[in-house]
Amino acid sequence: MPENTRLSPNPSLDPSARTLDCRLGPWTEVGPRSRLVESNLGAYSYVMEDCQIERSQVGKFCSIASCVRIGPGNHPTWRASQHHFTYRSSLYQLGADD
């Protein structure tokens, strides 16, 4: 964040940042080119530049580094592993895909 940034109880968004259906707590900051979708950012937390956060809950006092992606896909968490081999078996010559 630029050193001359002044925070306030109202969320601070860089002009190039985008949010969609989000709740941003007090004293929060979203950096340049970051994108938050259907997510909550807890009080006093910040997101640096070029981040993507989707369908996630970020707690209070969290620091998200530059270029971080959180929640971009819908992985099969009900399986023993989230690796591609469990649903793209043919790529690994393990049989037909699920």
Question: What features would you describe in this structure?
Answer:
- By secondary structure, this protein is an all-beta fold.
- It has a domain of 65 residues: UDP N-Acetylglucosamine Acyltransferase, domain 1.
- 0% of the residues lie in helices and 26% in strands.
- It has no helices and 11 strands.
- The strands form 3 sheets. The chain has a 4-stranded parallel sheet with strand order 1-4-7-10, with no helix packed on it. It has a 4-stranded parallel sheet with strand order 2-5-8-11, with no helix packed on it. A 3-stranded parallel sheet has the order 3-6-9, with no helix packed on it.
Report a brief summary of the structure.
The protein is an all-beta fold.
Short descriptors:
98 residues, mainly beta, UDP N-Acetylglucosamine Acyltransferase, domain 1, four-stranded parallel sheet, elongated
Layout of helices and strands:
Blueprint: E1 12-13, E2 18-20, E3 23-24, E4 29-30, E5 35-37, E6 40-41, E7 46-47, E8 52-54, E9 57-58, E10 63-64, E11 69-70
CATH architecture of the domain at 7-71: 3 Solenoid
Under CATH, the homologous superfamily of the domain at 7-71 reads: Hexapeptide repeat proteins
Per CATH, the class of the domain at 7-71 reads Mainly Beta
Helix content: under 10%
Percent in strands: 25-35%
Distance between the termini: 45 Å
User: Mean of the pLDDT scores?
Assistant: 89
Widest beta sheet: strand line-up: 1-4-7-10
Q: How would you classify the helix and strand content by structural class?
A: mainly beta
Alpha carbon gyration radius: 17 Å
The poorly predicted ranges are: none
Query: What kind of sheet is the major sheet?
Result: 4 strands, parallel
What CATH calls the topology of the domain at 7-71 is: UDP N-Acetylglucosamine Acyltransferase, domain 1
Task: Assign an overall shape.
Answer: elongated
One letter per element, helices H and strands E, the order comes to: EEEEEEEEEEE
